[in-house]
């Protein structure tokens, strides 16, 4: 692990969304395309995270492969020595380190996680799993096993990233230098050249984050959505009665979200996009334009997706899993030695 590691993973519990794409996949792909020689790039499918909330298990294997295909369609090169694409459950050290970290983590610490509170409130007590409660610990293991410093995540993962930093510092204080501490969210966004961590909102209810596990999916643009259907979702996005396009996420969250999406699709700064449409009074015309851009983006993405060779994805998984196991096991052994499970050499 001589090169600094950049790592990200996206839970394969449903098709990925444009929130996942712009929040986590694209920053990673940009690094992979521009700076792969300087860094080790770890893109993985966190398949063990997939069923912290209930899923259809008959679809999981296909979804894992689909996540791999989506990374490739988004531009992840598979033929570079510094780029790894692996499935979490094929690297057992993730589960083993999680157990050890569990024992150094307070129940209160996990109970404070906002995502846990939100998701468990929706599920109701008897459907809330222990897995959902403690998934940030598995996520910390995912990061710490490879000494990843840079972890592109959306704003929703702020608390979980903070926990990964806390637990690594806590273990280092107890046992000496075991882990590389990942950077805090602000430093991550700086590194990835973004002004601030991204949070694309649900189109139907712009007070909540767009999420792939949303029950209705009405306000969610999935990367595999039919482009016309996706355009309809944009046309029916909830806005306001101010009849003036402005970027003001507090007072005009719906319109601001559409401006944000437009800026991302065009690869332009939000200020430029706002300046171009500021004050426009016809939301219908504005939405039509965003809808067309979304449909165009999805059409192009889906052409690339259809071209991805499954065998290439599977061989990348297998090749990378060998490397990932070697690296992860080396870190795990250090931790096992530190906590007294293995003799120290
Ligand atoms: P779920 O509903 O299953 O939690 P999710 O859409 O929140 O799905 P995750 O697998 O939890 O997706 O997160 C994958 C990555 O995508 C994370 O880095 C997360 O920060 C990022 N992400 C998720 N939703 C958004 C969003 N709306 N805007 C920006 N980034 C997002
Ligand atoms: Mg999530």
Structure explained in plain terms:
- The chain is mainly alpha-helical and 345 residues long.
- It has 2 domains: 219 residues, HUPs (Rossmann fold), CATH 3.40.50; 79 residues, Tyrosyl-Transfer RNA Synthetase, CATH 1.10.240.
- It is built from 13 helices and 4 strands.
- The chain has a 4-stranded parallel sheet with strand order 3-2-1-4.
- Helix 3 packs parallel to helix 13 and helix 9 runs antiparallel to helix 12.
- It starts with a strand and ends in a 6-residue tail after the last helix.
- The relative contact order is 0.14.
- The structure holds adenosine-5'-triphosphate and magnesium ion.
- The site of adenosine-5'-triphosphate has 20 residues, from helix 1.
- The site of magnesium ion (MG) has 2 residues, from loops.
Quick one: how many beta strands?
Answer: 4
Radius of gyration based on Cα positions: 21 Å
Mean pLDDT: 94
User: What is the domain tally?
Assistant: 2
Q: Within the CATH hierarchy, at the fold level, what is the topology of the largest domain?
A: Rossmann fold
Poorly predicted sequence stretches spanning 5 or more consecutive residues:
none
Overview features:
single chain, 345 residues, mainly alpha, Rossmann fold, Tyrosyl-Transfer RNA Synthetase, 2 domains, four-stranded parallel sheet, 13 helices, 6% strand, globular, binds adenosine-5'-triphosphate, binds magnesium ion
List the helices and strands and how they pair.
Layout: E1 5-9, H1 18-35, E2 40-45, H2 60-73, E3 83-87, H3 93-102, H4 107-111, H5 114-123, H6 130-144, E4 148-150, H7 158-175, H8 185-191, H9 227-235, H10 253-266, H11 270-277, H12 283-307, H13 310-339
Helix pairs in contact: 2-12, 2-13, 3-6, 3-13, 6-7, 9-12, 10-11, 10-12
The structure holds adenosine-5'-triphosphate and magnesium ion.
Adenosine-5'-triphosphate binds at residues 10-11, 13, 17, 19-20, 23-24, 153-154, 156-157, 198-200, 209-213.
């Amino acid at each position: 692990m001589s090169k600094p590691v950049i790592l990200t993973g996206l839970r394969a519990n449903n098709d990925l969304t444009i929130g996942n794409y712009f929040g986590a996949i694209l920053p990673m792909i940009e690094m992979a395309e521009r700076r792969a020689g300087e860094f080790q790039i770890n893109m993985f499918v966190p398949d063990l995270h997939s069923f912290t909330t209930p899923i259809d298990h008959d679809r999981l294997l296909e979804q894992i492969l689909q996540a791999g295909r989506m990374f490739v369609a988004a531009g992840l090169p598979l033929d570079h020595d510094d780029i790894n694409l692996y499935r979490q459950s094929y690297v057992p050290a993730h589960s083993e380190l999680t157990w050890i970290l569990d024992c150094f983590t307070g129940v209160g610490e996990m109970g404070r996680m906002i995502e846990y509170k939100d998701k468990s409130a929706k599920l109701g007590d008897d459907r809330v799993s222990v897995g959902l409660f403690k998934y940030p610990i598995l996520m910390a293991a995912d990061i710490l096993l490879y000494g990843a410093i840079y972890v592109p995540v959306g704003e929703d993962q702020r608390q979980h990233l903070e926990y990964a930093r806390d637990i690594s510092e806590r273990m280092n204080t107890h046992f000496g230098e075991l882990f590389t501490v990942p950077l805090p969210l602000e430093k991550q966004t700086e590194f990835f050249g973004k002004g601030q961590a991204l949070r694309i909102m649900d189109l139907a209810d712009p007070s909540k984050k767009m999420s792939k596990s949303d029950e209705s999916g009405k306000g969610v643009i999935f990367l595999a959505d039919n482009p016309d259907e996706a355009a309809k979702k944009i046309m029916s996005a909830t806005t306001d009665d101010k009849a003036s396009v402005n970027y003001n996420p507090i007072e005009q969250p719906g319109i601001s979200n559409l401006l944000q999406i437009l800026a991302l699709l065009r690869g332009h700064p939000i200020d430029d996009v706002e300046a171009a449409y500021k004050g426009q009074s016809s939301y219908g015309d504005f939405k039509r334009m965003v809808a067309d851009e979304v449909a165009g983006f999805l059409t192009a993405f889906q052409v690339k997706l259809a071209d991805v060779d499954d065998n290439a994805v599977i061989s990348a998984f297998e090749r990378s899993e060998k490397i990932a196991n070697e690296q992860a096991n080396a870190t795990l052994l250090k931790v096992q030695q530190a906590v007294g499970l293995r003799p120290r050499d």
